[in-house]
Every structure is written in C-alpha cells, then in structure tokens.
Design a protein that fits this description.
Blueprint: H1 2-6, H2 10-51, E1 56-57, H3 69-78, E2 83-90, H4 94-108, E3 114-121, H5 128-138, E4 142-147, H6 152-162, E5 168-171, H7 183-191, E6 196-204, H8 208-224, E7 233-240, H9 241-249, H10 257-264, E8 268-275, H11 287-301, H12 304-333, H13 341-373, E9 380-385, H14 388-392, E10 402-403
Parallel strand pairs: 1-8, 2-3, 2-5, 3-4, 6-8, 9-10
Antiparallel strand pairs: 4-9, 5-7, 6-7
Helix pairs in contact: 2-12, 4-5, 8-11, 12-13
Amino acid sequence: MWSDILAQPPLVISGALAAVVAALLLVLLLLVLLLLVRRRARRRRAATAASAPEPTLAPVAGGHSTSSALGRTYQAAALAGRRLSVVIPCYNEYENIRPMYQRLTAVLRPLGVWYELIFVNNGSHDHSAEVFDALAAADAHVTVLTLSRNFGSQGAYTSGLDHTLGDAVVCIDGDIQDPPELIPDLVGQWLEGYDVVYGVRVRRKGSLIRRIGYKAFYRLFRRLSYVEMPVDAGDFGLMDRKVVDVLNAMPERDRFIRGLRAWAGFRQTGIPYVRDDRKFGKTSNSILELFRWAGRGIYSFSYAPLQLISYLAAGVVGLAAIALVVYTVLYFVFPDAPRGFQTLLVIVIFLGSIQLLCLSIIGSYLGKIFEEIKGRPKYVVAQIQNDHRAERHASRHVEDGVTLGER
C-alpha cells in the first residue's frame, strides 16, 4: 500500500498530506475551544451557585393538590384580597383567542380572586380584532392592548407587563400550547413563598427536528450563560409583583424575558408539564427565525462568543507553529515536490473563515449596542380597551412605551 502511495506524483502526495494535516489541526482546535468554553462555563455556574441557591423543581404547593376540593379551598382562602394578572400575547391567533379565554376563565373564577386578562394584539392582520372587541365588551376582566405593529413576542409581553395590576402576573402564549389549567399549581407555589414559578417542558409535542433543536438550545444556553438558566423553561410562568417591577425597570430594548426573569433572581422553582402541539393556525417562527431567537438569547446573556475570538487567535498561532514543523519535515521527505500553492490555498481559506466568523460575532454585539443606544420605545400601543390602570389612577403613564389612544 505504501509503495502505491509513494508512486503517486509528488504534487498529489503533498496536497493530500496538507489537506489531512489541516483537517486534523482544525478538529484539534475545535476540541480545545470546546473544552475551554465548558471549563469557563462550569466555573461561572459554580460561582453563581455559591452566591444564590439553584432553582428547584417542585411538586404542587404545600401538599395540597389544586385538583382536589381541599386544595381549591386552601388556595381560595390564601388568595383573599390578592390580585392576579394574566398576559397573553397574540399574533394572528383568531381561532385560539376565544378557547384561550374560556379556559382561562374556567380556571380563574373558582379561585375567588380579582383577576384581569390582558390580551395583547401584536399587530394581527386576521380577524383577531373582532374577537377582542366582543370579549372586551362582554367581560370587564378582559383588557385588550392593540399595538401599532408587530413588536415581537417579547415586546408584546413587555407591554402587557407594564399594564398589569396584579400581585402576581402569569405569562402565557396565545397559541394554547401551554396549558392554562396549570395556573392553579403556579399560584400554589407562589403562595408557598416562591417569587418566580416557571413551567418546565419535560416533553413537548411537534416535529422531531424542532424538539431536538429546542433541547439542544436550552442546554447550550445554560452552559454559555453567565446567569444560572433553568433548562426547558420558556416564558410560561408566574412572577411576583416585585419581580415584575424589576423587569419593568430594566431599560434594555432587545429583550429576552425568560433570561431577564432568571437574571432578576429571587426565590424560583419550576413545575413540569407536557407542552401540547398547536391546534389551530400555524406558527410564525420558521427554522431561521428560531436560530435568530437562539442568537438573541446567547448574545444577551453570554460573553462566550467574544471569548471564542481570543481562543481562535491563540489556536491560529498554535496551528502556525505546528504547520511550520510539518512543512519542514515534508521538505526533507519529498524534496522534489512543488511547494507554495497548497499551503497558500489552505492558509487563505482557513484564515478567511476565521476572520468572517469573528466579524459576525462582533457585528452581532455591535447590532445590539446600536439598537439599545437609539433609545426607541419598546412598543407603541395604538388602543386600549378596558384599561384597569385608568380605572384605578386618574392619570396613567407608561414608562417605556408609547400610548396613542384608548377606549
């Protein structure tokens, strides 16, 4: 075999060796970078855990199951005099709005607590407005915030949080993939003293590719983040008023609510549940949009991409030193082989790829800085129906949003 290989022209042999060496060095570099990133993330998580207790995953509060009559009685007594707000962002959820309202009402009325349902019409262009008008006219518990355009789910959540009056606030998507029937369990944990109670998606329905992608993202996000992030926890959850006030006071525009919720701290716990698949309509999040979403979370709560640039620079220096040794050896093994072209091609492609990667990382952070320093409002409310804030306050002022009209 070796005689056949050595019988090949020197140009072919040197080119093949150069390609093999480059591939091996690239794999070695990636493994070293991965180990360094994991080591830094592990140290950061250990430091965070030393300063604050890790969020726990708890069963139903106090041993009182909210599905039993005893549990409901216990909960109703504990909730006396308290207020509960639910924020539901909706974008083209015409078929889901009324079922969501019915399920929320069926869950909240037995609690015997003052409650408000804040639906956020996030720039929908279907028949959602007609359904919202009917619900607001029929039920004073329903508040409808109509945004001037689509400000994204995080902008919609932010507008809803700014308008809440509850002692506790529940965030839930308008597609009914998260079960409203879990709210009594969230409230039960809140009554036990937890300030943040989030839902943990132990299993989710839907396409296999999306399920794998979500699982991979949450674990990567946890490893890279400088804040202890719960795994498989979305925006669905309950926050105490003091936590909501902290989030409302944060000035940043490009928001990642589940990350800000973890950053705020306080006493947190999770409740496991199975996330259902969408029953009506189609998701507005494509695969590309989900990658952008993942990037937003990582760039907002991790410096690992910037640290990767330093690691790449150190790795390239090491590769250059190794390549010098390799090509010195090749010079004596194949003295007649033509030199220069393969080496130059490999170096140009490799260094060009590294530079483009570094520029993309820097550009992402610069884009976030540019978005923040413009200081634009986080959202614009075109219309408010059944504004409970206006009922309780003679003058209403929204700190970080713009309100154009109400009725």
